[in-house]
Amino acid sequence: MDDHPVMQAIFQRRSIRKFTTDPVASQQIRRILEAGRWAPSGLNNQPWRFLVVRTGDSRQAALAGCTKYGRIVQEAQALIVVVADKEVMYNATKDHQSVGACLQNMLLTIHAQGLGGVWLGEILNQEKEALRELSLPYEKYELMAVVALGHPAQEGTSQRKPLNELLLEDFE
Predict the structure, then answer these.
(1) pLDDT (tens digit per residue) in 27-46
(2) Which of 69, 98, 109, 139 could make a disulfide contact with 41, Cβ separation 3.0–4.6 Å?
(3) How do the domains of the chain map onto residue ranges?
């Protein structure tokens, strides 16, 4: 089972925080967005909305100023801003979970294309400022994450707790 491509992608994907200056092709970004679009959502409401910010767009520097991870934002060859559309949400918890699935689909697709990416959540602490810099109304949208991506200039590393530390009770 671990040799299945989906399982390999799940186990091998890592957050990448350093990128080369090589551009990311528009078709690669479109594929990432399509994968996000196909995530499951309650009532199939698909609450996610995307804004792509490419290198050279002044909004990239503006977003970099909204997070302590500004270096990552500045070095990325593309940013995918993911917001939830408040007008189509029906349950905040369920809709936030759906956006999480959308983000995971996008991160797996980034990995599958040989790119690197990272889900930036700290920027949520400056949500109103970030939305203002993007000219997105706070009344209509809720910032969920910014995905920074590009061609990796580093290998990612990660550790996971043993499964038995995460189980509330044994199931066997």
Answers:
(1) 999 999 999 999 999 999 99
(2) 98
(3) 16-154
